Amino acid sequence: MKKKITIFGSTGSIGHSTLDIISNHLDMFEVIGLTINCNYEKLNDQVKKFSPKVVSINNNDAYKNFLKINKDKNLKILNGIDSLINILDFETDMIVAGITGAVGLMPVIRATEMGKIIALANKESLVCSGSLITKLAKKSGSLILPIDSEHNAIHQVLDESNRSKVSKLILTASGGPFLRKSALEMKNITPDEAIKHPNWSMGRKISVDSATMMNKGLELIEAHFLFDFPHEKIDVVIHPESIIHSCVEYSDGSILSQMGNPDMRTPIAYALAYPNRIETKVKKLKLSSIQKLTFFEPDLIKFPCLELAYESLKIKKSAPTILNAANEIAVEAFLNEQIKFLSISKVVEKTLNRASISPINSIKDVLDIDNESRLISTELINQVHY
Ligand code: MG
């Protein structure tokens, strides 16, 4: 029996890598659904190659343009934001959640309720609604397999039968493109400079998050919800080579880590095939050619976003949701050259101070808090000249 897969964000970086792996294992996987925002031409290529049953196109113009070029008469073509949920009416075993941002949240929640296997790349799902999703997953039996490289590494080396003997989860961070820049040099960074990551190829938003180290902050929160360890037991260490993807430290002094060349196809393949393993075309890591690996403490003063994430995790309740929403608005404003690079953390900090901290008991709570925080951040950006 082939594993049936629906990919959210099929033309993005995660979706692209997922289909690359599937194309080498067509005997094991069947593509059921693909969702995109705008890139209808790339979707058309994917439809020709993988013959899915259904596609969802969020952008209206892209939808109309796709209708003109599509030749697959059996393909069901959905349109609009609701179709990110409706696509789940088509039977699938697993979803690959590759949509960045809060828009990727609803399909993850719905698929979790339905008890699907979730290959999770969308950070916001756990950051904004971690307690809800883990509760839903327990109830439905849904299995969440992280494809973020750090969490995937931890998933690979975390011995659940010895959970009480785990002393620490250690998330590694490349430090992003500005690791060695001074605060002064970071003042006039342009969007183009910020999206050039030294080790990983990723989308624009996540590349900026990596440059501010908010990415690691979001991953810290994600790790907390995913593996159920308190913030005191989750450390971040800078490891510029991105060879060790994260570690688990045990009380006997052992540290177990997962290593490999930085290529998202490894964690994606792990999730697709779990609990088995499949081959990928990822270049194998030659240990003798690395020679040395380096590690050091993160600089929380130079990278205040990481500190803000720690703070929000200490407060919990709605604080991580506020942090995430404020960051999305601030990063967008930076990419549109409305605010400076160093102002991203200021917008996030001020939004955290202004928004009301309240408990999260439902999806409605998440969406309300997300909305409120976005309004506050937008107002801050429009009022103050950063
Ligand atoms: Mg990561």
Fold blueprint:
Elements: E1 3-8, H1 13-23, E2 29-36, H2 40-50, E3 54-57, H3 60-69, E4 76-79, H4 83-86, E5 94-97, H5 105-113, E6 117-120, H6 123-140, E7 144-146, H7 149-157, E8 166-173, H8 191-194, H9 204-212, H10 214-227, E9 234-238, E10 244-250, E11 255-259, H11 265-273, H12 287-290, H13 304-315, H14 319-335, H15 343-354, H16 363-383
Parallel strand pairs: 1-2, 1-5, 2-3, 3-4, 5-6, 6-7, 8-9
Antiparallel strand pairs: 8-10, 10-11
Characterise the protein shown here:
It is a single chain. The protein has 386 residues and is α/β, with parallel strands linked by helices. 45% of the residues lie in helices and 15% in strands. The strands form 2 sheets. Strands 4-3-2-1-5-6-7 form a 7-stranded parallel sheet, with helices on both faces. Helix 2 links the parallel strand 2 and strand 3. Helix 6 packs parallel to helix 10, helix 10 packs parallel to helix 13 and helix 14 runs antiparallel to helix 15. The relative contact order is 0.11. The mean pLDDT is 94. Bound molecules: magnesium ion. Magnesium ion binds next to helix 7.
State the gist of this model.
This protein is of the alpha/beta class and 386 residues long.
Give the termini separation: 56 Å
Query: What structural class results from the helix and strand content?
Result: alpha/beta
Q: Mind describing the biggest β-sheet?
A: 7 strands, parallel
| Computed Rg | 20 Å
Key structural traits:
globular; four-stranded mixed beta sheet; single chain; binds magnesium ion; 45% helix; 386 residues; alpha/beta
